[in-house]
Specification:
binds adenosine-5'-diphosphate; 49% helix; five-stranded antiparallel beta sheet; 889 residues; alpha+beta; 24 helices
């Protein structure tokens, strides 16, 4: 809305501003003009006065006194013209000379000569030395020529020789140059002012314009606001009036509602500022009591609900949003009243909740119904959940649209029940195997028409791609909505189906196995009649299955002489449950259809089905096996004979070796005897060379003898003819002797040899053999230990045994070779590589000696640290009779 008076106001303001500023500038201009003019005029007057004074001073001497007494005429006039002529240049347009009496005595305008002065007083002043100046027109006092504007000055004239002024000289200056000058000075100022004014207008007008517009706009807004304010005020007045009406109506309404309304302050939950009268019918307390009794709400709140309600209220108030809560209140007469409290927050202008208002709805009945329903539902739910199948209700349509199906369906087909309800994700029809769907439709349809329950098996498609076998039982019912529905349950049969299939397959397999078995499989009943007869039975016995089944087994396959025993056996088993041949493999004689008898392997096992016995017999024709066995037996005999002759040969060899060794020993002994004689000089003196040669012969004869001894010993061992000469032996002494015997060898080799003997009783043994054992072990130690090493021999008693240990720091024996160490002729690869001499008989002999003493010999060896041979011998001879007897190895 616009104000019609507002728009002219602005132009007026502008005009006024323009006017005032122009006026101000004009005044400034006039001021300047006035000032310049005044200044210029004063200067012009000063100038004319000065000029006149100067002229008066310079001309006075040239003037005659007469010149100032009477008007000049004639030649004097001309002289004076000439005199004044120079003065009449540079702006002086007229000159007058006045006499004392005020008459013009001379003027360059001759017409003026003789004229009189008009103002006597002023003239007198000039004569007295006070020059005057005037502004006027040239012809003001008469004269000829253009009546131009002039500035004139009167100055006193004091001619020569006069003490006081006798006349007055008057100069008229043209005023126009002064005016021109003024104009020239003022003109740029005026132009500047004019321009300034223009500039001012140019810059101020837009501003003014804008200001004007802004003002206009503000005015308009103010007017609008004023209008709106007026309208709002009006509305408010109306609203207040209607609010009052509404409040009265609302209160009446609220107090008639079947619920309790209340208002409570936010800072005091439970304390009401208002409560509707219905509180009395609900809880038996009057509104006044409710409002006045402190804490009444919390007192009537069911104790079990206090905590929860407190929390709910606090959270609700903090959130500042509406909330609802259900709890129990106790009425005055002790009834439990379930209420629903719907709380609404009332906020102030700053959005801070200030009070809560709400209503309490009595929901006791609803709660009771809910509770009952909940219990029912819970019962129903557990019932349904415990059924080992999916319970459903569906529409009788193409999709079998599911209205309800229990969670079990997920177990069955892999999809949650919610998928099916109302065909939300899939239809129930979609999980029925397409091949079975028509049958399902047909069967269910017929049952529905006939109004009877149905049971149908079909395949369902599981989410994982497998097929589930299910059985569905159901019946049509009329639902709450009057529609016909199907109620039913679906059970998973897959496992049973699989088991049945497996059973069928297994039966088929068994049949196949039985049919293709290499054995004749025959089943008979308790009476001994054939009930099963496989192909192999047909082949073996010559009876076809058709012929055999139903015959007595005994008459069919058992030779007459065994039949009775067979029949008795069955009878005995049936009577006592005992059957010595049952479950075992026995070999009997079978009878073919052609009357030929043949060996048979038979195994019979009883089978009890349904309390009745039957027997399965497995019969195998073992004619071939028998033949093979006979053959093998023959071969075994042959081998045994060969073995025997080999052993014989071996014995012969051993005997031969023993014989040869024995026979070698005699000549060797003889050789040694004669050598000794030779060396002792019995056959004359020997030179050194001969002695040296004979020494070599002796050493080799000795070695040969030792070797022969070893061979003979082993031959004895092999022949089981090792004989020990048992006596009481001090093993410590034997060891000391052996150490002493071998010490030169050790010294020669550069190895340390030590002996340590512990307390040890006398041992029953062959002293010479034990000495041989020790010699063998110690000399081996020396042989396989490089110079700088050591051999430690230890002998001690330990738990009824004599223990002998020979430890060396030698080359050791590789672990894989240790097991062969005690075999005849065995030599370790290292010993062979290093060409250490030896025969590989020493340890075999040692072992034989130890074993002959009932002891044990073992070795622990390691290629980096050396070997330890450990011998333990029982101290007490367990077999004293071995004294004279041979020890069998
Ligand atoms: P020989 O010593 O005559 O070879 P032995 O029967 O005494 O025969 O020994 C058989 C082999 O056992 C030896 O050749 C040697 O390789 C190994 N052996 C025996 N004693 C030792 C030992 N103390 N250290 C290393 N090797 C040994």
């Amino acid at each position: 809305m616009t104000n019609p008076t507002a728009s002219p106001r602005a132009p007026r303001l502008v005009v006024r501003f323009a006017l005032y500023s122009a006026l101000a500038l004009l005044l400034a201009g006039v001021g300047i003009l006035w000032f310049v003019r005044h200044e210029t005029q004063t200067r012009a007057e000063d100038e004319v006065t000065t000029r006149a004074s100067q002229a008066a001073a310079s001309l006075a001497p040239k003037l005659r006194p007469t010149d100032l007494e009477t008007p000049v005429t004639g030649r004097r006039l001309a002289a004076l013209d000439a005199l004044f002529k120079p003065e009449l240049m540079g702006g002086v347009v007229r000159v007058k000379l006045w006499g004392r009496n005020g008459t013009v005595t001379y003027s360059n305008d001759h017409s003026l000569i003789g004229s009189h002065v008009t103002t006597k007083g002023e003239f007198e002043n000039v004569l007295n030395g006070e020059p005057i100046r005037e502004l006027g027109h040239l012809n003001d006092e008469g004269g000829k020529g253009k009546n131009i504007k002039i500035v004139s000055a009167y100055v006193p004239l004091k001619p020569r020789g006069q003490s006081h002024a006798t006349g007055v000289l008057e100069f008229y200056n043209d005023y126009r140059p002064v005016e021109d000058q003024v104009v020239a000075t003022v003109k740029p100022v005026a132009i500047a002012l004019g321009l300034a004014l223009l500039l001012l207008y140019a810059s101020l007008f837009p501003i003014l314009n804008q200001v004007t517009k802004a003002l206009e706009h503000r005015n308009r807004r103010l007017e609008q606001q004023a209008d709106e304010l007026a309208r709002t005020l009006n509305e408010r007045r109306q609203a207040v009036a209607s609010l009052h009406d509404a409040e009265t109506r609302y209160r009446a309404l609220v107090e008639q509602l079947p619920l309790v309304t209340y208002v409570s302050a936010i800072d005091k939950p439970g304390f009401s500022a208002y409560v509707s009268p219905q509180i009395e019918s609900m809880l038996g307390y009057t509104p006044e009591e409710w409002l006045e009794t402190p804490n009444l709400f919390w007192r009537v709140l069911h104790p079990d609900d206090v905590e929860r309600v407190r929390t709910e209220h606090r959270q609700g108030y903090e959130s500042g949003k509406a909330f609802s809560s259900q709890y129990r209140l106790l009425s005055r007469d002790g009834r439990v009243v379930w209420v629903e409290d719907q709380v609404q927050m009332v906020h102030d202008a700053e959005e801070t909740p200030v009070q809560a208002q709400g209503f309490l709805l009595d929901i006791t009945q609803r709660k009771a119904a809910e509770l009952a329903l909940g219990e029912n539902e819970e019962r129903y739910r557990t019932l349904v959940a415990n059924v080992p199948g999916a319970i459903f209700r569906c529409a009788i349509d193409d999709n079998w649209t599911i209205e309800y199906v229990s969670g079990e369906i997920e177990e069955l087909v892999g999809y949650p029940s919610s998928d099916f309800v109302g065909n939300r994700v899939r239809t129930f029809a979609s999980i029925i195997h397409p091949e079975d769907a028509p049958v399902v439709s047909k069967e269910v349809g017929e049952a529905v028409v006939e109004g009877r329950p149905y049971t149908i098996e079909y395949r369902a498609l599981h989410r994982d791609g497998h097929v589930r076998y299910v059985v569905e039982r159901g019946q049509a019912i009329v639902g709450a909505d009057g529609e016909r529905k199907l109620d039913g349950a679906i059970f998973d049969l897959t496992e049973r189906h699989i088991a049945q299939q497996a059973l069928e397959e297994s039966e088929e397999r068994t049949r196949l196995i039985v049919d293709t078995a290499l054995d004749a499989v025959v089943t008979i009943d308790a009476a001994g009649l054939v009930t099963g007869w496989n192909r192999r039975a047909e082949a073996i016995f010559g009876w076809s299955s058709e012929e055999a089944v139903g015959r007595l087994l005994a008459d069919t396959v058992i030779p007459p002489e065994h039949r009775e025993a067979h029949t008795r056996g069955i009878e005995r088993f049936l009577a006592t449950g005992e059957g010595p041949v049952l479950g075992k493999r026995i070999e009997i004689t079978g009878l073919r259809r052609n009357g030929k008898e043949f060996p048979v392997e038979l195994a019979i096992s009883p089978v009890k089905t349904g309390g009745v016995y039957s027997f399965s017999a497995f019969l195998r024709d073992i004619s071939d096996r028998r033949a093979a066995e006979d053959e093998r037996e023959r071969l075994v005999h042959e081998l045994e004979a060969q073995n025997e002759s080999l052993l014989q040969l071996d014995r012969l060899k051993d005997e031969f070796v023993a014989l040869v060794s024995h026979e070698l020993r005699t000549p060797l002994t003889s050789i040694r005897g004669y050598l000794e004689l030779l060396l002792e000089g019995e056959a004359g003196d020997l030179n050194d060379e001969q002695r040296q040669f004979l020494g070599v012969v002796e050493r080799n004869a000795h070695r040969l003898l030792a070797l022969v001894g070893d061979l003979l010993f082993l031959a004895q061992v092999e022949a089981g003819k090792l004989s020990l000469e048992i006596g009481a032996v001090d093993l410590g002494a034997v060891a000391a002797e052996s150490v002493e015997t071998t010490r030169p060898l050790a010294d020669e080799k550069g190895v340390t040899l030590t002996l340590a003997t512990g307390p040890l009783p006398l041992l029953a043994g062959d002293r010479a053999r034990l000495a041989q054992l020790l010699d063998n072990l110690i000399s081996n130690g020396i042989k396989f230990t490089p110079a700088g090493g050591r051999i430690d021999v230890r002998v001690r008693g330990e738990r009824g045994n004599a223990v002998l240990e020979v430890r060396d720091t030698g080359m050791g024996i590789a672990p894989e070779e240790q097991q062969n160490l005690f075999e005849r002729f065995f030599r370790s690869s290292r010993a062979t590589e290093q060409a250490i001499p030896g025969t590989g008989l020493g340890l075999a002999i040692s072992k034989a000696i130890v074993q002959a003493h009932g002891g044990r010999i073992t070795v622990a060896s390691d290629e980096s640290t050396g070997s330890t041979f450990h011998v333990s011998l029982p101290i007490r001879q367990t077999r004293p009779e071995t004294d004279a007897e041979q020890v069998a190895l």
